[in-house]
Amino acid sequence: MTDRKSTVPAEGWRVMTSDRGRLWATRERPFPAAAEEAGAARTVDGDDLAELCRVIAEQESLAALAATP
Q: Rounded to an integer, what distance in angstroms lies between the CA atom of residue 47 and that of residue 10?
């Protein structure tokens, strides 16, 4: 993967573009253990920026739900 910064879809996520043009994002800080146990993924991918933003939002939502008592 080539580390070419794109538009940042969400604060705290680093975006990379693969040599084949696929977008990847990695959360700069790990999710809490409860969020990871709930299925939140720290690294995600998408075919385009809109899909990548949607996937990031899903992961952040999972993490928020896991933090709710």
A: 17
Residue type, 21: G
- As a whole number of angstroms, the distance between CA 9 and CA 66 comes to 22
The rounded distance, in Å, linking the Cα atoms of 37 and 15 is: 24
pTM for the structure as a whole: 0.82
Q: Is pLDDT of 2 > 80?
A: no
Angstrom CA distances, 4 to 30, 38, 43, 53, stand at 22, 30, 16, 17
Residue pair 13/40 in contact by the 8 Å Cβ criterion: no
- In contact, 15 and 8? CB cutoff 8 Å: yes
